[in-house]
């Protein structure tokens, strides 16, 4: 059972009932129902009706005495992890290129989630989002299944977003900034790949050029949606494939994929405090990037 006690601090002179506060915290309606009928929301240690106004400084206790939406189990892994941020509820890890975010089979033990399973010892990891195996950078992982739906809602409402850096081949001119709005679907000719197609799923990427020369550019990328291979497909479609991309760049490979998830922005569950977590690329990737400029 997961339990959380939060000291409520009023924002912008808001006056919220318990029901309104739970909605603000992006807690699913079904869970709100469980809290009410089981009287598992306490204000200063006592249950009150959902129409009760929450006061500044009140201590609110949420008792998650019902099954979570997600069940995730992982075998222990063997590799150390690079922890960038950690608190009681989440852990943010800087994933190495070439490491899968999660196993494809329950019998596998060589992914990031397996390694975090070992690191947590008495706890277990729950995946919130993933990045491609070839991509390095930040991955947010929950220590409880009860936060996963809340982070999923942050993703869909753009309160949780990810920022990337990439070095691209300039096979065509690139404006200094812009938005790529191209639906993406499975490539029917290659199960490993995705492709831009009008009948695909909505996919939007914003980009900004940070540095460039005649052949390459360093770009900042923001995902407004989260499709598989989205950045790689969008850039390649515009003739700006990411350097060393084994699937979408036909040029000779000279090392790892130069795509790095360097920043995560999200709201801390139950407090709405803005969190901005960033990381530096590995020395190897930094040296590769510097070699192009």
From TrEMBL:
Belongs to the pseudouridine synthase RluA family. CDD domains: PseudoU_synth_RluA_like. It holds the Pfam family PseudoU_synth_2. Residues 89-236 form the Pseudouridine synthase RsuA/RluA-like domain. PROSITE patterns: PSI_RLU. It catalyses: a uridine in RNA = a pseudouridine in RNA. It comes from the Bacteria. Keywords: Isomerase. GO terms for biological process: enzyme-directed rRNA pseudouridine synthesis. The keyword Transcription regulation does not apply. One of its GO terms (molecular function) is RNA binding. This is RNA pseudouridylate synthase.
